[in-house]
Structures are given as C-alpha cells and as structure tokens.
Amino acid sequence: MNSNHNTVRISCAYDGGNIQFRSTRPNELDSTITDVIVVVKQDEYTELEQIAHKQYFSFRSTVNDSITKCRYILDNASTTSYPEAWKDATVCYSSDLYDPDSWKRVLNTRYENGKLVWDMQHTGTMYFAYFPPFSYQRHLDLISKCQQKTTVLSLGQSLEGREIECVKVGTGERLAWIIHRQHPGETMAEFYAEGLLSRLLNLNDDDSTNDPVVKQVLEMYTFYIVPCMCPDGAVRGHLRTNAAGANLNREWATKHYYEAPTLERSPEVFWVLRHMDETGVDVFLDVHGDEEIPYNFLSGAEQTPAWGPRLQALHGAFGAAYERSNSDMQLEIGYPPPESPEQAAQYMNVATNQVSNRFNCLGMTLEMPFKDCWTNKNPERGWSPARSRQLGAGVLEAFVYVHPYLRDDTEFWTQLPLEDRYVEPTDDYRHLEETMPLYQFIQLNRRFYSDVHEIHKKETSGLDQGKKE
Length: 469
Ligand SMILES: [Zn+2]
Hints:
By secondary structure, the protein is of the alpha+beta class. 24% of the residues lie in helices and 21% in strands. The chain binds zinc ion (ZN).
C-alpha cells in the first residue's frame, strides 16, 4: 500500500459528529486517488417503527500531506432511512466547523451503485456534513441571548438531563406555539429558530427595534418558542431520535398499546404537551427538514377530525401570506395529504395532528430542504443556515395576516381573497421541473403528509404501520 493512503485521519469525536471509519485504499483505476471508506452510524433503535434510523453524518478528515486526492465513499448510503433522497444531494464542507456561514457544497457529489461519493483534494482538516451542524454550545448561547431580552422557561429535562427551554415573548391574547428540531439531524430547524428569535427579540441589537411587524405581532400574540426539542439526539449526531430511540414526532399520543408520551421514553414531548395544556394553543408550527424534496413547504392536519373549511382556509391563508413574505416558500410541492380520515387516524401521534385536534387550532409542519432549494437555486451553497434564518424571520408576516381569523367563528373563509385559497400539494417535483401542466402530475412515491417517507416503515412491518396504498 502506498504510504499516502495512511495519511488520512477520520474523526467524529465532537458535538453532533456521526461517522464510522472503515478503511483507506488506493483507488483501483487511479493510484493518485485515495479511497476513504466511511459509514453512517445508526440512531438508537426505534421501538414503535421497528427500525434503527440513520442518514445524518458529520465528520472531520485530516490529511497530512499535500498530494493526496481523496475520494470519500459513504458505503452504506443505500441502507439509510431514505436512500432515494441521495439523488441530487450535495455534501456540505467547511474548514470551520462551527461557523455555519462558511459551509459550501461539494458539487461533484454523486449517488452511484448504492454509495454516496465525492472527491476533494485538501490539506489539513476539512469537515463534511449532511447539513451544517448546530452545536449545543450555539444552542446555549442562543438561550443566553434570549434570556437577556425576555423570559426563558425550562419545561423539563431530556433523558440525559438537558433542559427543554421555551422562550416566551409577546403580550397578545392569541397563543402561538412554535417548536423546532424534533428530529435532531434536521439542524436547519434550529437555524430557523435562531432567525425567528433574532427578529422577535432584536438579538443582534440592530435597528430592528423599529420593525413595525415585530411590534404588531407581539401585541397580537404570546409566543412560546422551543428552539430544540431533542438536544440529546442533537449532541449524539442522530438523524431522528432521542437517547432512547424515540422518534419524538410519533410520541404525541398513545397508539394501540404503545403509550406516549412517557417520562421514561419521551419526556421532551411529555413536558411540552403538558405546558401546552396549561396555556392553550391558538396556532401551532412544527419546524423540520426533509431529506428528499428540494423545496420549502407546509403540511397540515388534512383529513383529521378537526379539519374542515375553517382549518383549510386558515392553512391556505397562512401559506399564501408566507409565500408573499419570503420567495423561498411555495405551496405547490409538498406531501400529498392522506386520502381518507381512516388513513389520517393512523397518525394522531404526530405533533401537528395531535395539537391541531386537541386545541381545535391551525397546526402546521414546516419542511426545509437538505438539498438545494429549487425555487431559488444556489448550487454552491444549497439550502443554507442563512436562508433558514431568513425563512424563520419571515414567518411573522404570516402570523400577522391570519390573526383576525384564528378564533373567528363566522364563515370568514367566504370572504377571503382567491389568492389565499388552500392549495393541495403534490410531491411530484421532478415533473414540475419539466414544466408540465399541473393536471399531468403523477404521484411517484406515495407518502403521508405530516412527516416524510412513511413508505419505508411499512416495509419493516412495524407496529406503526400505515395503511396499504
Ligand atoms: Zn423531521
């Protein structure tokens, strides 16, 4: 073996790191290239879904000489939770781990023969990640800054003893709950929280004290904002679960004989839900990232018992106002809603469905891409922490817009303009790229709405099986 091939060191021994080093070897076709074989580590086993999730990775590669060209090979890409999501994915890289705005995309990333592969020649240390990390240190800094401006509640502790913080701000009568990062690998969700809180609280001490929308929204609402629902999974570099393997977005209600939430398995949800019961909820937003779909979108509580003309109109008006305030939001592409109330009833343990029905209120899941955002493409950066922050800041206009209707018990939807109407989303985004007319859309991969890719769960014949298509 050429000595070059021993000069690459792989490590993930830091907050949010996830990788397992397998080996290095000279490339079969080009001996100037060193193949670096790595695999993603799995989350703790998820009892309800009977699957060990894996997809998020973040690692450090240190190369000691200047002539080594590295070909990184993620060897188990085809057995991750969402293998079809690797197509069009680009790996993020930076030499500065904790500067979120330093990360760019490796444009030669490709998914071939079941492996995610990318090439890079670099000396010294380079970091690679599925999405730029949001560290626990950064989380604590955010909480400290918020605390200098407003009340920060601790609703309870995670299984490993981290606080579940909730930032309370505003004096309005309407109660808005916004939670982030139930799925810890979806780090863009906490960047979103950072943007939202920075605007609401003027955390950067710029001239946004003159922001008329902020002034207005704080008079309309009292916000309860949880920046990170799953700090344990975040520190561990998990994709989807807490320290006990619980997928928190399936822990909002008991399902069959699987009791949830519980203090033993999902205290993060248990405490948040208990606090919601004490305060009440008029509008709910749950912020996530989606591995496959290269768009931002909202998903609602369609087909659940509470859904009807009122919630449909509120959902439509919120989305339309959001799209007007930030062109990275769009309404056409998203999870197709369930086809029947029976199908939706299988998913009352999902936060949006549970909260929307428990409080008879507008409830939404917001998804951001891991990939580039195809509404405003930027391949060099892809969807980024900066754009996530902007999207978080831009949601306030939508809150202002729907405020008069949230608890309006008249048939207000008959008065709303046509541009506010509910748009039923399709996930057939590849056809949109080919500019086919809307009526020609074909559903390629059936998925349920409030979360992604339930289809894999069905294959594992888990407890949480969906209905057959
Ligand atoms: Zn998620």
